[in-house]
Amino acid sequence: MSALSGLKRFKNEATLKTWVYSIALNKSKDFLKYKNRKKRSGKIISINRVADGDRSEYYEPSNFVHPGIELESKEQMNILFAAINQLPENQKSALILAKLDKMPQKEIADILGLSLKAVESLLTRAKSNLKKYLEAEGVLILKKGKR
């Protein structure tokens, strides 16, 4: 909605996609700041709950992964995301755009309003900081193709 309402301010200095990504990134950061300031209250509702009249049923989606392996993977993902959240905001943004959104560095530079070299530097520092954090947590880091 912010992109639509601000379309008059789009100046063609970047692609429309990059401009929209910038807005989404800034809105996400604003939301996280708001969420961290706001008192946490409310109730938790499972996404696996199916309402059926007056009663609620819970179902488990079919899963062929052994529970032990699934738990280990979940723990590793929690450690990884905790490590990512430890990064400075600019490193975290660059890393998420590069690795999770699979975005090219040039596009990341446009979104963050930085030079390509600055984005390369951010990504290098983010990876280095992640490695230090994970090693401090005792997490085994495997190189691609090695076990």
What's the short version?
The chain has 147 residues and is mainly alpha-helical. It is 59% helix and 5% strand. The longest helix is centred in the first third of the chain and has 22 residues, at 16-37.
Helix-strand blueprint:
Elements: H1 2-5, H2 16-37, E1 49-52, E2 55-58, H3 67-86, H4 89-100, H5 105-112, H6 116-136
Antiparallel strand pairs: 1-2
Helix pairs in contact: 2-5, 3-6, 4-6, 5-6
CATH architecture of the largest domain: Orthogonal Bundle
Mean pLDDT: 76
User: Nearest-angstrom radius of gyration?
Assistant: 20 Å
- Fill in the CATH topology of the largest domain: Arc Repressor Mutant, subunit A
Order of helices and strands: HHEEHHHH
Shape: globular
Largest sheet: 2 strands, antiparallel
Please indicate the percent range of residues in DSSP E strands (runs of 2 or more): 5-15%
What's the CATH superfamily of the largest domain, by name? Winged helix-like DNA-binding domain superfamily/Winged helix DNA-binding domain
Strand order, main sheet: write it out: 1-2
| Fraction of residues in H or I helices | 55-70%
Count the beta strands.
2
Structural class: mainly alpha
Query: What count of structural domains?
Result: 2
CATH class of the largest domain: Mainly Alpha
